[in-house]
Amino acid sequence: DLVGLSFAVTAGEAWYVPVGHHYLGMPEQLPLDIVLEAVRPLLASPHQLKIGQNLKYDILVLARAGVEVGGPIYDTMLASYLANPATRSHGMDNLAAELLNYHTISYSEVAGSGKKQIGFEEVEVEKATTYAAEDADITLRLYEKLVPMVTEQHQDGLLNDVEMPLLQILAGMERAGIRINPEFLGGLSADMEKKLAVLEAEIHQLAGGPFNIGSPKQLGEVLFENLGLPKGKKTKTGWSTDVEVLNKLAEDHEIAAKILDYRSLMKLKGTYTDALPKLIHPETGRIHTSFNQAVTATGRLSSSDPNLQNIPIRTEEGRRIREGFIPSDGCVLLSADYSQVELRILAHMADEPALKEAFARGEDIHRSTASEVLGLFPEMVTDEQRRAAKAINFGVVYGISAFGLAKQLGINRREAQQFIDTYFERYPGIRTFMDACIAEAREKMYVTTLLGRRCAIPEINSKNGAVRGYAERNAINYPVQGSAADIIKVAMVKIAARLTDQGLKTRMLLQVHDELVFEVPQAELEKVSALVKSEMQGAVDLSVPLLVEVGSGRNWREAH
Length: 560
Description:
The protein is 54% helix and 11% strand. The protein contains 22 helices and 16 strands.
């Protein structure tokens, strides 16, 4: 709820309008509705620029109070994200210190911290004025500093045509939220509970007695001391039982495989089937995630509170969780997903003829790669050979090693190395592209996406070999992953504009990496399916076709 609004129009000067402070002896405040009526035309004006730091948050708070913020807008956090990608944080305190050499008043200085922290409505108006007015003033000064920086770094197009319009779209998606079926998720939780009990009994039997599976210390003792399994690395508290250690053991020891299953089921139950129903908003009856626009190094959106981009779709349990996401009455969920978008971007950026031709002909790309690398006709390629080609196709942008490929495919390292060598002989453009990415990063400390976004690679010249190797892999991966992120953002902006222009009631609800999820009234389904597909496939002009798979259904799993 709104406690007050602060404004600045000239650097060094700002105002605070308190509307919702509650404490003993508070001064008289203007009624909220009068204040909102006064600022509404200004905030809605299509001519007046509104500048904010993390502006989406303000837009959401104002929307909840019944005030719409119309364009043009400018978010200093997003400007910093594009102009200054290597900075530690795009938060206001850090930007003020870095760009203005100014130390801001922290929230804890006015509201306290820990158990003693009070709500902002209990902060004295005098204290609140200094804090809130400084916020507005510093934002204005950051704006003045960042505008030329964005231009210097050639990021104006991305900021004005992609990130700023997207901010408004994301605010709309967060407000819309998504409906879930709490009864279904409750039933799923109960099923998982039973499965966990069975797994626990099996693990205890294999261990020769009961112990707390959730305690890394007890687990380490059981595995490495009682059962005498090959010991991994030691930590301060005992033996390491992290995923890497357990994965290695799981190849030969059933107990480790069962512990991995137990852990992943526990995580799904705790994070989703138990937690999601508790997050249903009492006023909307839906859950509302937050999309973070200035967090990842590549420009990808992330999602938090709850993170809806992390529901695994490779496991049956993960897919069942998606069944719990449902549309409003009279609507269906529509899911549109880019097919192999990163591979297509790689083919385009590396300008690799053999790969581009295979995509242009609409071939099964992994079968086609296997046939190229192994010198076989496509129809002679076995499923096993296709699987190997798929692993290398997807692994190449992550700098897959012979060791990694051998482990993934269960073959020896020499065979894996041979496969990789032949791959680069058949697709020399990819090796050239990878080398060029690393060279660009070494020279500039960043790499760029198709739309010119700069992805910082600060560790590229590190003296530490492991750190440098990781940075080199990022130098290859970031342009591809970042371009995929840019492409889906462009598609979102175009789709939102068309939905509005055509007066459609369809709402965009989620973005999960290469997938968009919409809530579509039954009557609009055919029209919206075609619209979404054409805008996603035509988002940017590549030398290979972009392919989008569209599905719809009574829940998210059915739609995907």
